[in-house]
């Protein structure tokens, strides 16, 4: 059987994954704090028919060898952590991290999740929570009757209660040596893995390489629709070319099988 059939099939499978990644990026173009991903690929094993430098006669070697590849496979989906655009909301509980770092979210199972989504709310008990009702860590509680909440660039939370300023707590953020190694679990949350390493800190925003916090803004997705559409066109054409290679190989096999003595 012609190896080109299998080689081209791996190309189609790779572009199918590529389109899936691009589609997910486009689907989340309006997701707060979303970070786009990029599919990465590597070539497969090579069959060496003749080694380069093989002697042909005394004192003479062939300058080039003969190798045939066996296609392509996905090697990684790389998450890109470039800063998304900021959108002003004037909501005192909408926060962005300007720079490096993640908000810490206490999940129901006790595990910490990490997020760039700073669209926080207040629950019935005054606790600051995310859209799913998970607590911000460290936990901040807004007292009943608070007239206003101010959050400094260093994460200090102050509320005006009874005409007096009252400090409610300190928002800390975490950093990772390899944030691309974090595992996405949905709900705008990620969890640490052995690849990401343990979080550095957590600590005060603005110190030791951490970003600062800006109140009244949210961070938009860093997906560029124009870029993703271009990548989609490239992936579509690559898929078509690989399918054409399969069709051509099939025609060649048909010619060979129709030969008669």
From TrEMBL:
Question: What's the family?
Answer: Belongs to the flagella basal body rod proteins family.
**GO CC annotation: what is one?**
bacterial-type flagellum basal body, distal rod
The gene for this chain is flgG
A GO term (biological process) for this protein? Answer: bacterial-type flagellum-dependent swarming motility
A Pfam entry, by short name: Flg_bbr_C
Q: The Flagellar hook protein FlgE/F/G-like D1 domain covers which part of the protein?
A: 97-159
According to UniProt, the name of this protein is: Flagellar basal-body rod protein FlgG
The segment(s) forming the Flagellar basal body rod protein N-terminal domain are: 5-35
Q: Which InterPro entries match?
A: Flag_bb_rod_N, Flagellar_basal_body_rod_CS, Flagellar_FlgE/F/G, Flg_bb/hook_C_dom, FlgE/F/G-like, FlgG_G_neg, LlgE_F_G-like_D1
Q: Which UniProt keywords apply?
A: Bacterial flagellum, Cell projection, Cilium, Flagellum
Which NCBIfam families does UniProt cross-reference here?
Answer: FlgEFG_subfam (TIGR03506), flgG_G_neg (TIGR02488)
Recorded superkingdom: Bacteria
The Flagellar basal-body/hook protein C-terminal domain is annotated at 214-259
Principal subcellular localisation of the protein: other
Stored PROSITE patterns = FLAGELLA_BB_ROD
């Amino acid at each position: 059987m012609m190896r080109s059939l299998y080689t081209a099939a791996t190309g189609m499978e790779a572009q199918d994954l590529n389109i899936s990644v691009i589609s997910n990026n486009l689907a989340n173009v309006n997701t707060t704090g979303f970070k786009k991903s990029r599919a990465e690929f590597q070539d497969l094993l090579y069959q060496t028919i003749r080694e380069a430098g093989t002697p042909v006669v005394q004192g003479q070697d062939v300058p080039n060898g003969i190798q045939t590849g066996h296609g392509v496979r996905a090697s990684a989906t790389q998450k890109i952590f470039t800063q998304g655009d900021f959108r002003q909301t004037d909501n005192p509980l909408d926060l962005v991290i300007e720079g490096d770092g993640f908000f810490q979210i206490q999940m129901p199972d006790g595990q910490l999740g990490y997020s760039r989504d700073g669209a926080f709310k207040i629950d019935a008990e005054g606790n600051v929570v995310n859209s799913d009702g998970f607590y911000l860590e460290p936990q901040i509680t807004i007292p009943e009757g608070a007239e206003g909440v101010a959050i400094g660039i260093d994460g200090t939370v102050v509320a005006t209660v009874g005409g007096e300023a009252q400090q409610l707590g300190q928002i800390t953020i975490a950093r990772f040596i390899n944030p691309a190694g974090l595992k996405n679990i949905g709900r705008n949350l990620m969890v640490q893995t052995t690849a990401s390493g343990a979080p550095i800190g957590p600590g005060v925003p603005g110190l030791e390489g951490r970003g600062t916090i800006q109140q009244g803004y949210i961070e938009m997705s860093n997906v560029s629709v124009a870029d993703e559409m271009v990548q989609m066109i490239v992936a579509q054409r690559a898929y078509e070319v690989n399918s054409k290679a399969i069709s051509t190989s099939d025609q060649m096999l048909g010619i060979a099988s129709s030969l008669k003595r």
